[in-house]
Amino acid sequence: MPKRDDLKRILVIGSGPIVIGQACEFDYSGTQAVKALRSEGIEVVLVNSNPATIMTDPELADRTYIEPLTVEFLELIIERDRPDAVLPTVGGQTALNLTLALHQEGILKKYNVEMIGASAEAIIIAEDREQFKDAMIEIGLDVPHSIIVSSINEAKSFARHNGYPIIVRPSFTLGGTGGGIAYNSDEYDEIIHRGLALSPVHQVLVEESLLGWKEFELEVMRDRHDNFVVVCSIENFDSIGVHTGDSLTVAPAQTLTDKEYQRMRDAAAAIMRRVKVDTGGSNVQFAVDPKTGRLVVIEMNPRVSRSSALASKATGFPIAKIAAKLAIGYTLDEIPNDITQKTPAAFEPVIDYVVTKIPKFAFEKFPETDSTLGIQMRSVGEVMAIGRTFKESLFKALRSLEAVSPFRPEDLSREKLSASLARPNENRLRFIVLALEQGWSIEEINRLTNIDPWFLDQIDQFAALQRQIRGKKLKSLNEDEFVLAKEYGFSDRRIAYLTGSEEEDVRKYRHSLNIRPVYKRVDTCAGEFESFTPYLYSTYEREDESDVRTSKKIMILGSGPNRIGQGIEFDYCCCHASFALRDEGIESIMVNCNPETVSTDYDTSDRLYFEPLTLEDVLEIYENERPDGVIVQFGGQTPLKLTMPLARAGVPIMGTPPESVDLAEDRERFAEFLNKLDIRQPAHTLARSQEEADEAVKKLGYPLLLRPSYVLGGRGMAIVYGQKRLHKYLKSAFDSAPGQAVLIDKFLEDAVEFDVDAVSDGIDCVIAGVMQHIEEAGVHSGDSSSVLPTFMIEKRLLDEIRSVTKRLAKELKVVGMMNIQYAVAQGELYVLEVNPRASRTVPYVAKSTGVPLAKIATRLMLGRTLKELGITDDLQVSRYFVKTPVFPFVKFPGVDPKLSPEMRSTGEVMGIGDDFGTAFYKAQLAAGLKLPSSGAILISVNDLDKKGALAVARRFQSLGFKLLATTGTADFLNDMGVETESVKKVSEGRPNFADVIKNGQVDLIINTPLGEASFRDGWAIRTAALQHNVPFITTISGAVAAVEAVVALRQNHMKVVSLQELHEAG
Amino acid sequence: MLIKTNQPVKIIKKSVDARLVLEDGTVFAGRRFGALVDTDGEVVFNTALTGYQEILTDPSYAGQMVVMTYPQIGNYGISDEDFESRKLFLSALIVKENSRIASNWRSDYSLDDYLKAKGIPGLEGLDTRMLVRHLRTKGAMRGVIGGIDVSIDVLLNRAKSVPPMAGRDLAITVTKGQRFAWNEDIAGINGQWKQQDLFAKKPESKYHVVAVDYGVKWNILRCLINVGCRVTVVPATTTADEIIALKPSGLLLSNGPGDPDPLQYSVDNIRQLLGKIPIFGICLGHQLLGLAAGGKTYKLKFGHRGGNHPIIDLQTRKVEITSHNHGFAVDADSLPKDRVEITHVNLNDQTVEGLRLTDVPAFSVQYHPEAAPGPHDAHYLFNRFTDLMREFQSQQ
Q1: Cβ-contact B232, B209 below 8 angstroms
Q2: Statement: residue A650 has pLDDT above 60
Q3: Chain A closest CA to B296's CA: distance in Å?
C-alpha cells in the first residue's frame, strides 16, 4: 500500500518543555518524524513551546511555531495553516492529550483535520484505565485486579477486599504524577487525596500490588495492512514497584524462554489490534510473577515513548521515522532498513550485544524529599551503554553516569546494608556489588531486592573479580586478569582505585600489554547482513569493524545524561556542530551516551560512537579515529572538564585554547585575571575553615553568596543573611567535601542579572544576545525567566556589557561560543561568571535572532572568521522573546518551590510577542502558569518587598482585581490606601489562606520568602498553590512582569507567528 | 527455578582450552563447556534471541555446529517442557558466554549440565560476532573443535575431511526408526504443563495426518493436534503404499537436516502420493515437494537460521515474521510454471519460501509455522492444511 496522496500538509505537535517523564526523547522522535514526512514531499507545520529543541530549528519544518501547547493556540495555528492531518504520536503524552482535547472540542472537525498515527478511539482505550482493562479481559488477557475510584470511600472499600499494599495511579497525569504505593491505610488516604486532586478528571486507579514481580516491555509497530513487528524487548532489572523510567533496564529480555516471550509477543499483537493502533509504534508493559509465570498486562502507550527511543538506539531501528511513514500510508515492507539498505523494515531486529539503561537522579537538589524510588518517575535523565555482555554494558553504563565522586560505601553494617538493599534507591546497584563482594548469597539479595538471580549472578562475577583485584599491585595483574577485567567492564579508574594507583598508570600499563578496545557495529541484524552505518560501540574482543577513514574529520563530545543544569540545550549545540561539519564537507564523529538525544541518532553525524564520556573512553576513540580536532565546548560541563586532561594527552582541542578554559574554571585564578583587567566583580574571598569565613564576613558583610568550588547548575549554592546559616552551610560543605574551599561572594541585593551569549573568532567578537533576567539576582540564571531584548537598562550599562564582553573574548582568546553572566547593582556593572563554552541559552538566542549560533561557532573553530561569514554587527531581534523555566516540584512532595541560587528547573519554554507583556504571558502559559485576566490575588510578602508589592497591588487593583493579603501585608496595603482583605496565616488559626486557596477563591498568588520566622507559612502557601494548581509568583520582579502580561492579555488578541515569517521579515 | 550459586570461587581468569578451526584455516580460541569432547561439523549461525533449547533439540541441526549470535546463552536453563525431539542431533553449541546459573520458574537443568548429560560439547568465550561475519562473508563452512594441545594443522586437516553437507542424506540418521502415534507422553510431559495455557486447547480430532519424520520437530505435531488432527508419525523411508494403507486424511512432510537432493526415495514416494492425499510440506518437506513437482534445490551461502525473517504471502500481501532453519532452498526458476505457484517469498533475499501445486492439493513452506522457537505468525498454515483436507474429503 503506497503513500496516501491526500495528505499534503501535516501538523506535528512537540512535547513542550523538558519535564520529568518527558525529555529530549521527544525531540529525537519529533525530529525524525518531521524529516521523514518532508522527505516524502509533505509540508510540515510544527508546534512546540520548547526553543531548545532541534525540531524547532527553522530549517527542519516548513512552518515552525514556538507557541504555548494549549487548545487555544493550537486552534490559531490550525486556522491559519489548515493542515490536512495532525500527527499526535511523536510528542509524548502532551501531544496526545492536546490532540484529544482538540478532537473533543470539535476543533479538528471544524477545520477538517484528520488524526493520523492514532485515532481518538485508540487513545481513549489506551489511556482510560477502565476501558483498557475491559478491553484486555475481552481479548482473554490477564490484568491486575483494580477499580477506578473518584472518592475516598470507594477507595476504602477496595482496600478492605484486597488488603495492602495497594498501588494508586491518578488518571491522565504525566509520568504517574501523584501516584504511589500505600502500605497502610494512613498512606493510602494521603495518596488518594493527592491523586484525586491532581487528576484532571478527578479519578484514580487503585490496584492489586504486583510488587516483586518481573517487569517487561515490548516496543512494537503495526501498519495498516495489519503487519506487526516487535522492535525490541526490554527487561527491567528492578522489579515492579519502581517506575520503568526510574528502573535500570536491559535489552533484550534476558530471562524469558521462547515460549514465554512468544506468549508476550502474541499478547502485544492482540493488544495493538484491540486498541486499534492501525499505524505506528506502541509500548506495551507486562508483569510476570517469578514464581508461577502468570503474565499480566500493565499498560500500553499508543505512541512513541521514552522506551521506544531507547529501543531505537538499542537496535538501530528508527521507530519514530518508520511510525511517521506508516502514518501516511506506507506499509512496513515498503520501507527499507537504512542500516542494511537491502532488507525491508518489515522484520524484527536482532542484536548481538546487551544494552543497559541507567536513570540519572537529582535528589541532591531536593534534600527534603524521600529518595526511595517508587511508581512516580523522578529521574531527570538516563544513560545507555552497549557491551557484548551484560556485565560490560552494565558497568559501562554506570561510568557513563558521571558520578561526581565514586560511590564506594565500604563500611556499612550488615543491618544497614540489608536495609539499603531492600529499599529501592538510586545507589542500590552499588550496594549489591558491595554485598556480593562481602560474600552475601544471591538468594539473600534476591529475597531483599526481588531482582532476578540471573542479574545478580552476573554482578557476582564482577564482584568476585573486584575482590580478587582489590589490594593487588597494578603491575602484579597478569594479562589474562587484566583482559578479563576489561571484558567485565572495569574502568581504568576503578582498577586504579582497587590497586591504589593512578588512572594514567593503569592506562599506560594496559597499553603496554596491548589491551585495547575494538569497535563493533549496531546493525539491526546481529551481523547477518552488511551494515552501511558506522554506529559503533567498544568492547574487548578480537575484530574491529570501525573501518576508520582518512578524510578530514572532527570529533564532537556530547553532554551525556540529562540532568538539572545540563540538558537538551547542549545536545542542540552538538547536533548543530555536526550539521556545520557536514556543510563544510568534514566528517563528523559524535560521542555520547544519552539515548534520548538527537545527537545519538545514527544519521545525525557521519559516525556515532555510543560510548561513556570519560577520559578513558574518549581517549581510546580518539586514538582509534585520530581526528583533526575535538570539539569540547558544546556539550556543557561534561566535555569541558575533559579539556585539560585531553590536551595534556596530546588531543587537539578545537577553538578556545584549553588554558583559557582552565582559567575560567578556576575561580580564584579567574578573579585575579579580572582584577588585572580592572573588570568589576562582586567582592569575594574563599574559606577553608569557619574561622577564615568569619574573618571574611568582617570585610564583606552580609548577605553572602556561598558555593562550593565545584559547581554545576548552582549545585550547593546558597545566600545567607546571618552567622547561624553561614555556619550551618559551612559545616555541611566541609563535611561533604573535606579540603575543598567554599567560595564566598558579597551578594548583590536588588541587582538585575544579564546573560550574554557571544561568538568570537579570536579577534572579532559578535554579541548574539543580551538577555535580561526577570527575577532578581540570587535566583539561579537557569531558574529565572529572561527576556530578549533587554528592557529597563541604561544605554551606558548596555554599552559597558558589550565592551566588557568583547574584551574578555579577546583576552581569553575565545574561538567559538562564550557566555557571560553580569549583574547590575546600584548602577554598577559586575561580572558574575564567564563560561568559554556554549551556554544553556544558545538555542533560545538562536531561535530569537534567526541566526544559527552553534553552527557559526563551529565554523569559527574550523578557522573561518566572522568577517568571512558576514557576521560583523551584534545581532538584533524584531520582537520580544521571553524564556521561562519549568520546575519539577510536584514530583517532590515536601520540597519548597521558592526560587533560589540552587537550580532546580528541568526545562524551558519561550513566548514570542510584539510587546513584553504578550511574550511574558505566552511564556508563562506555555510553562503551565495561566495568568488570570480578572479575579482575586493573594499577596504575602516580606518587609523588604512591601514597597514593591504596593506598586504591583495598585496596578492589579486598577485592573479590577480583588486583593487579599496576609495580615502584615494587608495592614501595610490598607495603610497605603489600597483596599485589601486580610487573610489569616496558618499560624494565626482558621480560616487561613490555605483554606482560601483550597476553596478556589484565589486566582493568583504573589508570595516572596517571608524569612526564617514565617518560613512555615511561606512554605504552606506555596505548597497549597502547587497542589491546587493556582499560579504563584515568588519574586516582586516576577509580579511586575505578570502585571504587564495581564494588561497585554486584556488588550490584545493573541496571535501566533512562525519562525520562518519572523526571520524572513527581520 | 534452578539457581546454582555460592560455588567456592576459584581464581577467576580468562582461560582458553579449546579451538575452533575452520576449513579455511581461521582459528578461534575459546573455553569448553558441556561435554568435554572434540567434534566436527558444518558451522552455521542462528540469530534468534530466545529459544536455544528448541534449537538444540531440533533434529534439522544434525551434523552442524550452531553459533548463537546472541551473546548470553543459558540464562533460563533447560525446561522439560520445551524439547523439540527425543535427543540432541547437533555437533556443538558455540556461544559468547554460557550462563553459570539458570533462572526461570520452569527451569529444570542448567544448559551446561544438560549438554554434559547429552554428550554434546559447547564452546564459549570467543568473538562470535567475528565468526558470524566471517561465515556471512565466506559462507557456511566445515570446522572442528579440538583441544589447544592439538596442533592447528591437525585440526585443519580434520576440518577439511568433514563430509560436506551437499549430497548427504542426514534425514536417515535422525528419523525415528518406527511408526508411532503422537501424544505428549512421548515428550515426557503427560499433559502436565506448568504453563497452563500452553497447548491447553485440545479440540476433537477430525483428521488423521500421517507425518513423515525426516527429523520432525514435536511442535509440528502439537500444532496439528491443536487444529483437530490425530497424528501418526512414520519413518522417512516409509513407502507410498504403506502410507496409503494408513488411510490418512493428509500427509505432512516434516522438516529435517541437510540436503534434500539425496532423498530420491522420498521424492518418488511423494510423486506417487500427489493427488491422492492433501500434502503439507515444511522446510525439508517443502524442498522435497519442490523436487517432486519437478524443481531443483541449491545450497544457500550461509542459510537462514533465526526467528525474524519477513515472509510475504503473495496472495494477501501480508507479511509474517517467521522462524527459519535451512541451508538449502528451492530454485524459483526451476519450478514448472504450469504446475507450481510460488506463494511466499522472503523479503530479505527474495528466495522461495512457499509453493502450491495448482493441479493437486499440495502446498509447502520453507520456514517453520510451528515456530518453537520463534513467532507464531504462520500458525494459520495449519488451518490452511485442515481446510485443504476438508475440501479434499468433500470432493471424494
Answers
A1: yes
A2: yes
A3: 25
**Taking residues B7-33, what's their average pLDDT?**
84
Task: Locate A320 and state its grid cell.
Answer: 519514530
What is the rounded distance in angstroms from the CA atom of residue A477 to the CA atom of residue B72?
Answer: 27
Angle between helices A120-127 and A129-138 (to 10 degrees): 90
Question: Measured between CB atoms, does A224 come within 8 Å of chain B?
Answer: no
Whole-angstrom Cα distance, residue A880 to residue A666? 35
Residue A41 corresponds to which cell in the numbers above?
514531499
Tens digit of each residue's pLDDT (9 = 90 or more) over B333-363: 999 999 999 999 999 999 999 999 999 999 9
From A221, A230, A219, A225, select the one nearest A329 (Cα to Cα): A225
Name the residue of chain A whose CA is nearest to B97's CA: A389
B309–A contact, CB cutoff 8 A: yes
Indicate yes or no: CB of B348 within 8 angstroms of CB of A343.
Answer: yes
Q: How many helices (H) and strands (E) does chain B have?
A: 10, 19
In A795-854, the residues whose Cβ lies within 8 Å of chain B are: none
Residues of A in contact with B20 (CB under 8 A): none
Model confidence pLDDT, tens digit, residues A524-571: 999 999 999 999 999 999 999 999 999 999 999 999 999 999 999 999
- Nearest residue to A11 (alpha-carbon basis) of A50, A51, A47: A47
Give the closest residue to A689 by CA, choosing from A741, A619, A637.
A741
CA dihedral sign of residues A663, A665, A668, A673: positive
Distance CA A164, CA A185 (A): 8
Nearest-CB residue to A333 (from B96, B307, B347)? B347
- Nearest CA distance, B209 vs chain A (angstrom): 25
CA–CA dist A729, A691 (Å, integer): 14
Residue B8: pLDDT band with limits 50, 70, 90: very low
Q: Which residues on chain B are in Cβ contact (under 8 Å) with A442? A: 3, 5-6, 101
Cβ-Cβ contacts under 8 Å, B314 against chain A: none
The count of other CB atoms within 10 Å of the CB of residue A53 is: 32
Which of A353, A468, A484 comes nearest B71 by C-beta? A353
CA distance A37 to A863: 36
Q: Does B290 score more than 60 pLDDT?
A: yes
Q: How many CB pairs under 8 A join A and B?
A: 206
pLDDT at residue A892, rounded to an integer: 85
Identify whether the C-beta of residue A964 lies closer than 8 Å to the C-beta of residue A896: no
Beta strands A936-940 and A815-825, pairing class: unpaired
Element (H, E) at A458: helix A453-469
Q: In which band, very low, low, confident or very high, does the pLDDT at A1065 lie, cut at 50, 70 and 90?
A: low
Burial of A512 (0-12, 13-18, 19+ CB in 10 A): exposed
* A1014 pLDDT tier (thresholds 50, 70, 90): low
User: Is B370 one of the annotated active-site residues of the chain?
Assistant: yes
Share of chain A above pLDDT 70, in %: 97
What pLDDT, on a 0 to 100 scale, did the predictor assign at position B9? 47
Q: In this structure, what is the dihedral angle of CA atoms A670, A672, A674, A676, given to the nearest 10 degrees?
A: -140
A1058: helix, coil or strand? strand
Integer Cα distance of B111 and B122 in angstroms: 10
DSSP tag of A749: T
Please indicate whether residue B283 is annotated as part of the active site: yes
Strands B319-330 and B340-346: what pairing? unpaired
User: How would DSSP label each residue in A631-647?
Assistant: E-SSSTHHHHTTHHHHH
CA of A586: how far to CAs of A546, A549, A577, A639, in Å? 18, 12, 11, 21
Task: Report the complex ipTM.
Answer: 0.97
Nearest Cα neighbor of A144 from A224, A245, A215 is A215
